[in-house]
């Protein structure tokens, strides 16, 4: 059998899988359909292009599960995290990146690797032999989706991933808006002022909610259903759940003081996060939407400070395809009906850039080790990676399976640690300490096997 590893899809997961496998000594071919076959969300043919937010979320590896995932990927010499660190932007306690230089860097590194070849063109069928990883992401092509559906015998599941709008910085009224990260998070002044804040009075908030609910929305295509992932709900869907929902979600006013009117507490706050290194673009945090473009412009210009906003990109919404992984994949990410085929990334039922890249990392290592005749032990369940894999390959209820971000709710409980909110800090530190030890042990086992 050919010893080459074929990876379909050059997004976060496919790029990371290729990097990991090639560095283990395996020849890799990345099959990427772009730019020959485009998608509505992608703008370039670059690998690891960021099409939604530019944030990798929290970088706290002691108190946050996604920050722990960052740590594990860095410990495994992850390409995606290395590129993110290289092109990071101020974002308080979060890790945000300059999206175009980030993807350009990943593309250059992979194309320059002596063991990696990139082939442009669509793969529309599951192969009968060879070594394969399918990391086609939320925008899996129709033809390939149909092939997966035919193989699994199950209907494709779908949810809708919404895109937040991006505003030109020069069009933001800084006499109204002020720069501050929530609770002044960050060690530097740039981090502490990474967000722009637009304050609302109660009357302004109520008028905004009325306009949001009345705005014209995009229609669903025939056969589609509104099965949104709760971590990425369009703002109008949140507003439909209750008029106060947004004020206790992305528009919460806590941890912020209006620099222009320090004695006046805003009733609600809309935050904007820097979207590029130049500071010329800002995205509206948590404002994914399926409003029509004309309605978006009208509604978003009701936000104080954005009355004259000019938009580099308006929000959108797209279908996201994912497997019912608990019924289809084993703990090495293999398709049970075709063990020579693995899946990685969002198509497996994880949500987010970091989670997608993490699943690519482990899939790439599993596939390379198998090709080299040195199969790896399962990823320890007490790691962030292992918690995710366990969830999608059996820990979740198959009948109600939905995409999941990494979170401490996926981790096995700790003994002798206080529960509830008051014990949360010690509990989270316990989770991360235990995970780091287990992850380092898993990586060390591979190093030992390589030396044997």
TrEMBL record:
InterPro entries: FAD/NAD-bd_sf, MnmG-rel, MnmG-rel_CS, MnmG_N, TrmFO. It catalyses: uridine(54) in tRNA + (6R)-5,10-methylene-5,6,7,8-tetrahydrofolate + NADPH + H(+) = 5-methyluridine(54) in tRNA + (6S)-5,6,7,8-tetrahydrofolate + NADP(+); uridine(54) in tRNA + (6R)-5,10-methylene-5,6,7,8-tetrahydrofolate + NADH + H(+) = 5-methyluridine(54) in tRNA + (6S)-5,6,7,8-tetrahydrofolate + NAD(+). One of its GO terms (biological process) is tRNA methylation. It is an enzyme of class 2 (transferase). Its EC number is 2.1.1.74. FAD binds at residues 9-14. The keyword Cytoplasm applies. It holds the Pfam family GIDA. Its main location: cytoplasm. One of its GO terms (cellular component) is cytosol. Residues 5-374 form the MnmG N-terminal domain. It comes from the Bacteria. Its cofactor is FAD. It is found in: Cytoplasm. One of its GO terms (molecular function) is flavin adenine dinucleotide binding. Belongs to the MnmG family. TrmFO subfamily. NAD-binding protein involved in the addition of a carboxymethylaminomethyl (cmnm) group at the wobble position (U34) of certain tRNAs, forming tRNA-cmnm(5)s(2)U34. Catalyzes the folate-dependent formation of 5-methyl-uridine at position 54 (M-5-U54) in all tRNAs. This is Methylenetetrahydrofolate--tRNA-(uracil-5-)-methyltransferase TrmFO. It comes from Pseudooceanicola nanhaiensis.
